[in-house]
Write a structure and sequence with these properties.
The protein has 15 helices and 7 strands. The protein is α+β, with helices and mostly antiparallel strands and about 325 residues long. The chain has a 5-stranded mixed β-sheet, covered by helices on one side. Strands 1-2 form a two-stranded antiparallel sheet.
């Protein structure tokens, strides 16, 4: 199922920065994502998690342990107003509990929680619902970035008591010690790291009550707007997904949403996407599902997705994924 969350360009920009000067051009990393180099110059651009994951998949294909490097670059300042609200919290516990209230602003792909076993607190990441091929990458990125946030908030490294991961131990396991100087456990039931519970009450060096209250209120309003946009975009996706064989077009879609084509176009523009991009996104997701099932001939998939010719579908799929449908199926 397609993940419907919107997110910022922070992670994409960090991917490009990580590879800068190392060979691959931005076009290689952005291939199939629908994100252009021009989009990166607009700080308010919103993209879908699917687009972000396409860029990350391109990066992982070039460097399997890139999640560890990206996680170390995700400082608390990367999270905008939420970052400032966290920095100005009274204690580490206050900051982490605030972060958990706004997962949409945090941009996480997991259900996050703090679990206290009496002596230790486990910062847990569960219920991953994205591409399983990127599960290891996303677990590494998530836990390392959360550790970096804690370090930034405290102004010093947070001592680790243990870390566990759902995936198998990778052949680059030795690199984990760069972020987790503690016992490691793989093939666990979730992804998490532990620290002494006393750190939750540790005062933060940049705490400021007035600034914190102002930033927390702005986060609350931004979250309402952000989740409202996600719900509206989810409705658009739902309508398009039900009509892939005969796409409604922008005007008919506007009627189904009880708004004018101009209003629909303006809303989509504000979200950083277009009707065609969302239609292509839905077609791509459905195509991947059918190709993976290995039951429907490619020409029939093309027909079901509304393409008049198999060649047109093939060209579109190459643009979306970088490979032909037959290669993807193989």
């Amino acid at each position: 199922m397609l993940h419907s969350h919107l997110t910022t360009l922070n992670a994409v920009s960090l991917v490009l920065a990580t590879f800068k000067g190392q060979g691959p051009a931005a076009e290689v990393l952005l291939a199939g994502s629908g994100i252009s180099a021009a989009d990166l110059s607009h700080a308010d651009t919103r993209i879908t998690t699917c687009q972000e994951m396409r860029v990350c998949a391109n990066a992982v294909a070039l460097c399997r342990d890139i999640g560890l490097d990206l996680g170390r670059r995700m400082h608390v300042s990367s999270y905008g107003m939420l970052g400032y609200a966290l920095l100005t919290s009274a204690t580490l516990g206050d900051a982490l509990r605030l972060a958990l209230r706004y997962p949409a602003l945090l941009g996480t792909l997991y259900e996050l929680s703090l679990e206290d076993d009496g002596q230790r607190v486990w910062f847990c990441a569960r219920d991953y619902r994205e591409d399983t091929a990127l599960a290891t990458f996303n677990a590494e990125l998530c836990l390392v970035s959360l550790k970096v946030i804690c370090d930034d908030l405290l102004g010093q490294p947070l001592p680790m008591l243990g870390a566990r991961f759902e995936h198998l131990a990778p052949d680059y396991q030795a690199r984990y010690s760069e972020s987790f100087n503690c016992p490691l456990h793989f093939e666990a039931t979730d992804n998490a790291f532990a620290f002494d519970r006393q750190w939750l009450d540790h005062p933060l060096p940049l705490a400021d009550t007035i600034t914190h209250q102002a930033m927390a209120e702005r986060c609350r309003k931004q979250n309402i707007e952000f989740t409202g946009r996600q719900a509206w975009l989810g409705r658009v996706r739902q309508l398009l997904s039900a009509q892939l064989g005969a796409a409604p077009g922008l005007e008919r879609l506007a009627e189904q949403l009880n708004c004018s084509p101009r209003t629909l176009r303006r809303h989509l523009q504000a979200l950083g996407c277009s009707y065609q991009e969302l239609l292509d996104e839905q077609r791509f997701e459905r195509a991947k599902q059918w190709l993976a099932q290995d039951e429907m001939p490619i020409y029939q998939i093309a027909e079901q997705l509304g393409f008049s010719e198999t060649a047109s579908f093939r060209h579109a799929f190459v643009r979306w994924s970088g490979v032909a449908p037959s290669q993807f199926r193989a």
